[in-house]
Amino acid sequence: MEDLGEIVGEFLMESHENLDQIDRDLVALEQEPGSRDLISRIFRAIHTIKGTSGFLAFSRLETLAHAGESLLSRLRDGVQPVTPTTITTLLATIDGVRSLLEAIEQDGNEGDVDVDSIITAVHAQMNAPAEAAAAPVASTGAVEAPEPLEEKPVRPAPEPVEGQRKPLGEMLVESGAAAPSDVGSALQQQLEGDERKLGAILLEEGKAQPAAVSEALQAQAPKRSVADSAIRVDVDLLDGLMNLVGELVLARNQLVRGVMETGDSGLVRSAQRLGMITSELQEGIMKTRMQPIEHIWSKLPRVIRDLSQSLGKQVELVMEGKETELDRSLLEAVKDPLTHLVRNAVDHGIEEADKRVAAGKPAVGTLTLRAYHEGGHVAVDVADDGAGMDVDRIAAKAVEKGLLRAEQIATMDKREIMAMVFQPGFSTAAKVTNVSGRGVGMDVVKTNIERIGGAVSVDSTLGEGTVWRLTIPLTLAIIQALTVDCGDQRYVVPQVAVLELVFIDGQSTKIEYASGAPVYRLRGKLLPLVRLDRALGLDVGGDQGVYIMVLHADGRRFGLVVDRVLNTEEVVVKALNSRFKDIGLYAGATILGDGKVGLILDVSSLARRSHLTADSDRENLVGTSRASGGPANGERLLVTAVGERRVAIPLDAVTRLEEFPRDRIEHAGSREVVQYRGQILPLVRLSHLLGAYSETEEGDTVSVVVYSEGERSVALVVDRIVDIAENSTTARREAEEDGLVGTAVIQQRVTELLDVRRAILAADPNFYTEVPDPMLVEA
Amino acid sequence: MASRQFATFEVADQLFGVEVHTVQEVLSYNEYTPVPLAPPAVGGLFNLRGQVIAAVDLRVQLGLVRQAMQGPVMNVILRGDGEPVSLLVDRIGEVVDLDDEAFEGPPDTLSGPTRELVTGTFKMDGRLMLALDVNQAVDTYRATT
Question: CATH assignment of A236-289, given 2.40.160, 1.10.3470, 1.10.287, 1.25.40?
Fold first, then answer.
């Protein structure tokens, strides 16, 4: 844009703003076709564009704007009614103007944008009496001849005053600064051809005080004074200032820390003052970058209108909290995901009018956009009162796609299941439309929102509607974070991901292991744990005196085990050198209070990676213990509960621990079986085998221990997985009972050792016929 | 006669050099943040006036044992492609003017990782300086064998 004159630049910027406003007003006009205010406002805006383009010699732009203006003047004068078709034509005109402006911005001239077809359409509108007859408003005007095409542009010269400002005379009379008769005679003079303004006439004739007139003029034009007090600032300049403030925050943090150590009260006071000023400055600079979310919402009424028309749906848009402000760069990043959610809601959420009526809902669907502050974040809801999402269908789809195992569904709550729609390639749309349903989109929405440190979630009630919620940080550059220690290094965790902190003292709170996978019982539910030191490939520390940070990411909750949690701090996010992007565990870097560089952890990739490693860890565990050969002192045992008895199974005999829904158990002959990973898995109930009373018949699921060898697997049904223990073989004796190889004292309790071979043969008598495994007999 | 200016430094007693215009600055720094799971040649990150700089351990790149990273280590900070990157070296030498005539390709007997990092040899008085290929030297994903 440098080679364009400043005037053209200003014109482009102003026109773009005007066009956005016109878009909104046109859509609003469709809702209330009678609003003269709206028509006048649109008219004025288009008139301004036409005037300036004529002045700048953009002749095609002028012609196009003129055509739109002619149509509008007919609407304004009531010659023609406002119909959806006229609105569509006018919107097309606005789009034409927009593409012309874009061409001008890029190439400096109007390029080869096609305006003639639009102009023809506009003229066709003005010559369409059939339409006009449809609406009673225009029944009188329809007979009037359409305006000739060559008609001189209407110049509504003094008009901008109308409807917006009070006439000056009226104000002067009201404030008592001028007598009604004086104002009347002055107006009369104007009508008789006096070119002077009303205030000037009154002043020159001494009918009013200069101070009173200028006061009235100022009161009359409040808009102007706002325009005068605002300036346009280059975003780069603001970004530069933002960076400097970031530096200042760092320097302040370092200084404050240093000063605190000296303990000099005078210095401490100065440092505190500096701290306060820095915070205020930071806030101020942030404010300059803040823009109301209305900025990106303004395009949505148009999107919704076009889309709902093409789909034949009726959608009313409600916007709440459009003054909520967000950092400019964030607004940009949120724009596309938000548009996608809105399109999706209109396309899939809100039903066709007849379906809605049949369901007892109003024919017009409501789409609500809601923005509000929530604990240092901005939440943006896209809520519709449409069909809602079917959790069972999503669950079925997820299983079908192999994203979840059927038995996992039972333990997941509704929202966790619905979060599956954010998985790549996931779409429950029955049919693919050109709007959505192709299975691309929701995962992109999620990636984009998470890239800016935000989160996205969905909640839905079948038949009542769906709420998509975006949680967005207020700003990109500075985030609230927790600093944690792991090993001898310090790491930074964005606070947005942190739900709570738990201290593990090893007594009342402790980390437990399920087949090698660390878990913690958080209010009765098992929370999978990720050891940060392990995830980072460092030396793995102990389980006592550590902290669990309960984090959420990707719709999952997990606990991150760290050595120490230090404090919350505002940190300035620095982009990390591109060579570290591949590692994926870091979201960026920052300068800590002591001047050292700290790595900011990427919580969602940590979650993803650790879910993978949890699986492979378990397999490694099984693999290594098997490789190490037969049972020896210190073998690892899986302790299970069967009735009131504790039964231990050598861990190297275990492939996986699973939960199966009780209704998945089928019968083959006299045996119980279950379908598992494309195989028929024979079940053996240890309670039957050992003659114990089972205690949990009423549960929905059964806990099983899967043992596989080669192609074959069997499942041993237990009541409960208790623990994993080392068998130090303090007291052991041979058993007299069938199915057991002996008993031992494990964790101060008498525990029976299962004869695995015997149990397996009970489930599948042919299990060993091909590949006998002598190692197992010893177990 | 064309001549070029080189900033020189030593690693394991061998003199290396990079063209002066590729160097942003030279400084010693003693607090590096290790990056777990990063390639072994990454010595760590440090704070250069508010900018986070990655330090590449030239010793590792040359197939040697890594810097101990205890106490101050010298950094040759290269302008890099868009973002500065630092080379960790043992000692900083002088800036020297070298004639193109003093230049020869790397000796045939030079092999191993060093061979891939070096563009040629400058014959100085009583010493040989190996000219580093800057891009290769900071490429931490280069296979070091």
Answer: 1.10.287
Burial A255-270 (b: 16+ CB within 10 A, else e): bbeebeeeeeeeeeee
What are the backbone dihedrals phi and psi of residue B108, each rounded to the nearest 5 degrees, phi first?
Answer: -65, -25
Alpha helices in A472-560 (DSSP H): 532-535
Question: In this complex, how many residue pairs, one in chain A and one in chain B, have their CB atoms less than 8 Å apart?
Answer: 62
The dihedral through the CA atoms of A587, A588, A592, A596 has a sign that is positive
Instruction: Sort out which chain B residues have CB atoms less than 8 A from A574's CB and list them.
Output: 51-52
What sign does the dihedral A474-A475-A476-A481 (CA atoms) show?
negative
Separation of alpha carbons A726 and A635, rounded Å: 6
**pLDDT the model gives residue A483:** 92
Q: How far is CA A280 from the centre of its chain?
A: 29
- The DSSP secondary structure of A82-118, one letter per residue, reads --HHHHHHHHHHHHHHHHHHHHHHHHSS-TT---HHH
Q: Which of B29, B30, B31, B33 to mutate to test the interface with A (most CBs of A within 10 A)?
A: B33
Residues of A in contact with B32 (CB under 8 A): 597
Closest CA to A369 of A275, A506, A470: A470
The backbone torsions φ and ψ at residue A624, rounded to the nearest 5 degrees and listed phi first, read -70, -40
Instruction: Give residue limits of the domains in chain A.
Output: 6-161, 168-220, 236-289, 294-473, 478-614, 629-778
CATH number of domain containing B12: 2.40.50.180
Instruction: Say whether pLDDT at A621 is over 70.
Output: no
CB proximity B135 to A under 8 Å? no
Closest CA to A638 of A557, A707, A581: A707
pLDDT greater than 90 at residue B116? no
* A63/B contact by beta carbon, under 8 A: no
| A591:B34 CB<8 A | no
> Please, what's the b/e burial string for A311-321 (b: 16 or more CB within 10 A of its CB; e: otherwise)?
eebbbebebeb
Closest residue to A589, CB basis, from B31, B32, B52:
B52
Q: Give me the mean pLDDT over the A703-714 stretch.
A: 74
How far apart are the CA of A440 and the nearest CA of chain B, in angstroms? 32
Among A107-111, A134-138, A515-519, A549-553, the least confident range: A134-138
Please tell me the distance in Å from B29's CA to the nearest CA on chain A: 11
Q: What is the mean pLDDT of residues A397-413?
A: 79
Q: Does the CA dihedral A322-A325-A327-A330 come out positive or negative?
A: negative
* Å between B39 CA and nearest CA of chain A: 9
Residue contact A586–B35, C-beta within 8 A: yes
pLDDT the model gives residue A539 = 85
Predicted structure pTM score: 0.45
**Does A478-614 match A629-778 in CATH topology?**
yes
Mutate which of B32, B42, B52, B61 to disrupt the A interface (most A C-beta within 10 Å)? B52
Sheet with A525-531, strands from edge to edge, namely A498-504, A546-553, A556-562, A525-531, A517-522, A512-514
Task: Name chain B contacts of A597, Cβ cutoff 8 Å.
Answer: 32-33, 44-47, 52
Could you tell me which of A232, A13, A230 has the C-alpha nearest to residue A4? Answer: A13
Q: Give the structural domain span for B34.
A: 3-136
Contacts of A10 by beta carbon, 8 Å cutoff, 6+ apart: none
Of A247, A537, A576, the CB nearest to B52: A576
CATH class of A629-778: mainly beta
Tokens 């701090």 identify what position?
Answer: A569
- Whether residue A583 and residue B83 make contact (CB cut-off 8 A), yes or no, is no
